Amino acid sequence: MLLQFVDEVSPGIGRYRLDLRELYPDSKARARFEAHWREFVESSADHRDLFTRDADSIVYRTESFIPHEQDGRPPVLLVVGNPASHSVRAGMCFALEKGRRTEHRFWEGLAAANWLSFNDVPGRPDEDAEARNARHRADLLAGRYESPFLVGIDMFFTFPSPASAPAWKGVSGLFKLFGCPGMRLIAAAERTRLASTISRFVTRQGAVVTFQRNAYEELRNPSAPPYTRADAREGRLRSKSAAGYPIQLFGAPPTYLARAKLFHRVLMEYADAIAGGGPAPQPLR
User: Fold this and answer.
1) Rg (CA), the chain
2) How far apart are CA 96 and CA 103, in angstroms?
3) 211 near 239, Cβ under 8 Å?
4) Which pairing describes strands 13-19 and 51-53: parallel, antiparallel, or unpaired?
5) How far is CA 212 from CA 1, 42, 72, 122, 257, in A?
6) Contact partners, residue 14, CB within 8 Å, separation at least 6
């Protein structure tokens, strides 16, 4: 099996095994990967704890935050491109703003669109980033937040990459590491994994919302509009099915735009569509 779940390390953090023999039956492609591997691993100090390597496989840590139980709210699965290495090590997705010790803009964007607001008490002088991440992780998994939805957050590509190393960051860094043919195989395996998550977590009253091109393209119905940056910014990416299930799928602007008004507007329009035509939520002031 190309991609296999190994175990859960802690709530929200699991390990997967990637089989390099299945990924690279061609010796030249495998040699190309091996030439890049060491540079990739050394691109971030966070990688020491995330990857275990043997001759023909990589075991790595990743993140997925699916609530433990349904609570009556429409379940909505948010799917981003892949996890940042420092967030996996911290045990919480979007753990910190890149290069800072401040809250990540993604949480600000969700709160501004009335999609998810943690029950934070203003001015917690004794709470450091680690404590805040642990509290947010527990609240996310338990559904303890203000939202019209029960929110799950998952990655399309489970393999982490550094947010602070330009050559290797994000999904583009994975394409550089694994190559386009390898990424097509990984994408097919990840789509199967996510289809299982969607079938378990999302009901027809809920939806799947993607924040990255590959996630939307791999999950959308073939008849739905293909991804374009302009359509994502304008909220025009909508599909009647997600990974083959009759679940609404929406393509949202990328997370780096989470502080922009267009990000908030698109999410509010999508919330209206999920609710079935009710009044769209108003932004926080």
Assistant:
1) 18
2) 5
3) no
4) unpaired
5) 26, 26, 28, 32, 12
6) 5, 6, 7, 8, 61, 62, 63, 64
259 by DSSP, 3-state: which?
A: coil
Residue 26, amino acid: D
Q: Which residues of 55-81 are buried (b: 16+ CB within 10 A; e: fewer)?
A: eebbbbbbbbbbbeeeeeebbbbbbbb
How many angstroms from the chain centroid is the CA of residue 54?
A: 27
In this prediction the pTM is 0.93
First to last CA, the chain: 50
What is the per-residue pLDDT across 202-261, written as a single tens digit (0 to 9) for each? Answer: 999 999 999 999 999 999 999 999 999 999 999 999 999 999 999 999 999 999 999 999
Q: Which of 245, 221, 217, 244 is nearest to 231 (CA)?
A: 217
Look at the alpha carbons of 38, 41, 43, 45 in this order and tell me if their dihedral is positive or negative: negative
Return the HEC string of 71-119: CCCCEEEEEECCCEHHHHHHCCCCCCCCCCCCCCHHHHHHHHCCCCECC
Task: Provide the b/e sequence for 100-119 (b: ≥16 CB within 10 Å).
Answer: eeebbbbbbbbbbbbbbbbe
pLDDT of amino acid 164? 85
The helix (run of H) or strand (run of E) holding residue 23 is: helix 20-23
Determine contact, residues 54/2, Cβ cutoff 8 Å.
no
Tell me if residue 18 falls in helix, strand or coil.
strand
* Strand ranges (E), the chain: 3-10, 13-19, 51-53, 57-63, 75-80, 150-155, 207-210, 237-239, 248-251
CA dihedral (78, 83, 88, 90) positive or negative: negative
Report the distance separating Cα 126 and Cα 28, nearest Å. 54
pLDDT band at 101 (very low <50, low <70, confident <90, very high): low
If we measure between CA atoms, which residue out of 33, 78, 64 comes closest to residue 174?
33
